[in-house]
Amino acid sequence: MTDTSRVFQLARRPDGAPRPDDFKLAEVPLPALGPDQVKVRNTFLSVDPYMRLPMTTLEGVHAPTDIGGEMDGGAVGEVIESTSGAMPKGSFVFSPLMGWRDLYVAGASSLVPIDPELAPLSAYLGVLGLSGMTAYAGMEYVLKPKAGETIFVSAAAGAVGMVVCQLASNHGCRVIGSTGDPRKAALLKERFGAEATINYRTEDLRASLKQFTPDGLDMYFDNVGGSHLEAALDSMKVHGRMALCGAVELYNSANYRRGPGNFFAAIEKGVTLTGFNIGLYAAQRAEMMRDLAGQLVSGALHGDETIVDGLENTGKAFVDLLAGANVGKMVVRL
Amino acid sequence: MTDTSRVFQLARRPDGAPRPDDFKLAEVPLPALGPDQVKVRNTFLSVDPYMRLPMTTLEGVHAPTDIGGEMDGGAVGEVIESTSGAMPKGSFVFSPLMGWRDLYVAGASSLVPIDPELAPLSAYLGVLGLSGMTAYAGMEYVLKPKAGETIFVSAAAGAVGMVVCQLASNHGCRVIGSTGDPRKAALLKERFGAEATINYRTEDLRASLKQFTPDGLDMYFDNVGGSHLEAALDSMKVHGRMALCGAVELYNSANYRRGPGNFFAAIEKGVTLTGFNIGLYAAQRAEMMRDLAGQLVSGALHGDETIVDGLENTGKAFVDLLAGANVGKMVVRL
Questions:
Q1: Measured at the alpha carbon of residue B221, what is the angle toward residues B332 and A277, in degrees to the nearest 5?
Q2: What angle, 0 to 180 degrees and rounded to 10, lies between the N-to-C axes of helices B285-298 and B159-170?
Q3: CB contact under 8 A, A267 and B259
Q4: Contacts of B273 in chain A (CB under 8 A)
Q5: Given an 8 Å threshold on Cβ–Cβ distance, is B275 in contact with A265?
Q6: Contact A266 B256 (CB under 8 A)
Q7: CA nearest B97: which of B154, B57, B40?
Q8: A326 Rama sector, left if φ>0, alpha if ψ -120 to 50, beta otherwise
Q9: What is the pLDDT of residue B75?
Q10: Which residues of B touch A (CB under 8 A)?
Q11: What does the pLDDT read at residue B59?
């Protein structure tokens, strides 16, 4: 019986963009199972931009990770030992925290059972996981799109952005997506419902937005913050609305918490900016999952993935994610 | 017949806090009346914090005023000559632009008739003017308060803040107001419906907010921006909402357009920030006026004023306004 786990620790705080050796793979003992506990072998690990935040020393929702502390994140895996009647050996589970490792022991109540018949296991980290639900909550509960409205989506080919684009398109909205990669731009148009794309590395965001939508944007879904948020704010219609989901452009900078330089434009144009995160929508989980799974099964929604093999490559996968190497959801397959 | 007007010009761009000699009183010729025009003798002039913005070189809703260009702003006055059937000699009018001067000629269609029987003329610059309507729009159309909710109002004893506090109190909300003056703090409690006040010059905003409302704020009405907005953002409940009206703390700084340093807290707590200005609510003018006048006449609403005498003191009145010398609406009486 295996009684150790291989788990990533934070070796040092990244200076700007993280590097693979900012993380160290360690072997740690696993405790014996107590009552209502399970031992899980992870199958897929999630890497997500928000994981950059507790690597800083800034206090936020995630307390800073100590140097030498274990990394955490989402994972799906199989129960290989159990003292829980509700979660027997052979069942599959999602954990929001027990990523970045191969094996773990946890209380059954901290895990969510998942159905491997409905969708591939990895989908529970992506389109049916926190990424998909984040996109769903931002669209359906925050922005509430109407047919014919125009939406700008940043990091549009990422795990969240790709779902946002498709949900908006399915609502009859005109979708413009930003990406830094012509290959992703093609996918956005062919597969994710975007009518236009902007390459933020080579184009001027404001000028390209103006060209596509001279009257301005009704909505903006912000995954990027920084210069994207500023360009969007300058491009909003009067009474336009924004869903603030993330600020990945700022995560490698000294202070990701700062606001846009042109914030006053919100007063001038009557713009509504609503921040949100998926943790605020736990009560809507069943509704979100039902609707997302329905659209996935019907073919109305694609859940593209970028798969990286091998636990030992988790750090590198995270580094590559922040550099934009993924199409859709990036996961590590064990 | 008078054929010149005394009008303030911008003598130079203020460096930080404005000084009275940043403005110069000039005498300029008045044109003869064309068709459907009126000559108006102003009775009261408005001074408002937003007037600081076009004194900068930053592009905003108000284009920068040229050096030597005429100042503008709200005013009420009496028609003393008219070629307009709808606005005869002896009638009273409000102009959103023809302040900072004693006499002017303008098209009748650019002016709003006002009723001197309903309220004193100066009220049409304050509680029944843009200040009162700004407060009304922010409360009734943006924040939509519910009884029992807690609201924090910055610059609470100012022209807008004083109305916000009273409207919120009339809705059954708990009101906490910030001010820099113990005399205004007393008025806020005795007259404007505040349950508590914070002196931002002597107290720590976050600590005082925490003391009054340990569970956090439901709403924040922002007249100040800067450190007030940051303290409020850190003190909001999950799903709290903010009406962004002004940022007077920043108006003397190099860039009033910048956002709060802790903007990311909006994502963490699901806070909604809605910017607005009264120009966006022209269609609701009649409704706002009816409701405000009703509350004023019934005694449910006080419209306190600080009156400065003499056209020549308009620049000084504006300077004193930004330094917080006013209680309620500051006007210049001619």
A1: 155
A2: 80
A3: no
A4: 266, 272-274
A5: yes
A6: no
A7: B40
A8: beta
A9: 98
A10: 60-61, 238-239, 244-247, 255-277, 280
A11: 85
Measured N-to-C along each axis, helices A226-234 and A205-212 cross at an angle, to the nearest 10 degrees, of 40
Which CATH topology does A4-126+304-333 take?
A: Quinone Oxidoreductase; Chain A, domain 1 (3.90.180)
pLDDT at residue A2, as a whole number? 55
- DSSP H/E element including A105: strand A103-107
The arithmetic mean of pLDDT across residues B242-248, rounded, is 97
Name the token pair of B235: 């003190």
| Residues belonging to chain A with any Cβ–Cβ distance to chain B shorter than 8 Å | 60-61, 238-239, 244-247, 255-277, 280
What mean pLDDT do residues A283-309 have? 97
Distance from CA of A60 to the nearest CA of B (A): 8
Q: At what angle do helices A159-170 and A285-298 cross, to 10 degrees?
A: 80
Please state the domain extents for chain A: 4-126+304-333, 130-279
Taking an 8 Å cut-off on Cβ atoms, the answer to whether B268 and A244 are in contact is: no
* Confidence label for A272 from pLDDT (cuts 50, 70 and 90): very high
Q: Amino acid identity, residue B255?
A: N
Report in angstroms the alpha-carbon separations of B54 from A198, A204, B51, B64, B319.
34, 28, 6, 4, 15
For the segment B110-159, what is each residue's pLDDT rounded down to a tens digit? 999 999 999 999 999 999 999 999 999 999 999 999 999 999 999 999 99
Picking from B119, B134, B135, B18, the residue whose alpha carbon sits closest to that of residue B76 is B119
pLDDT tens digits along A60-86: 888 899 999 999 999 999 999 999 999
Residue with token string 């990394």: A71
Return the CATH number of B4-122+303-333, one of 3.40.1280.10, 3.40.630.30, 3.60.140.10, 3.90.180.10.
3.90.180.10
Please name the amino acid found at residue A32: A
| Chain A, nearest residue to B265 by Cα | A257
User: How many Cβ pairs within 8 Å bridge chains A and B?
Assistant: 105
C-alpha distance across the termini of chain A, in Å: 19
Interface predicted TM-score (ipTM) = 0.96
Q: Is residue A255's pLDDT more than 60?
A: yes
Chain B positions in Cβ-Cβ contact with residue A61 (cut-off 8 Å): 268
Instruction: Using pLDDT thresholds of 50, 70 and 90, give the confidence band for residue A59.
Output: confident
Give the span between the Cα atoms of A248 and A51, in whole angstroms: 10
Q: CB A264 to CB B245 under 8 A?
A: no
For residue A152, pLDDT over 80 is answered with: yes
List the single best residue of B160, B263, B271, B280 to mutate versus A (max A Cβ within 10 A).
B263
- Please tell me the distance in Å from B312's CA to the nearest CA on chain A: 31
- CATH class in words for A130-279: alpha beta
Same topology, domains A4-126+304-333 and A130-279? Answer is: no
List pLDDT tens digits, range B35-79.
999 999 999 999 999 999 999 998 888 889 999 999 999 999 999
Instruction: Provide the pLDDT for residue B51.
Output: 96
Mean pLDDT of chain A: 96
Characterize the bridge pairing of strands B112-113 and A329-333. Answer: unpaired
**Dihedral angle sign, alpha carbons of residues B242, B245, B248, B254:** positive
Q: What is the pLDDT of residue B2?
A: 55
- The percentage of chain A sitting over the pLDDT mark of 70, rounded to a whole number, equals 99
What value does the mean pLDDT take over residues A191-208? 98
Q: Is the pLDDT of residue A55 over 90?
A: yes
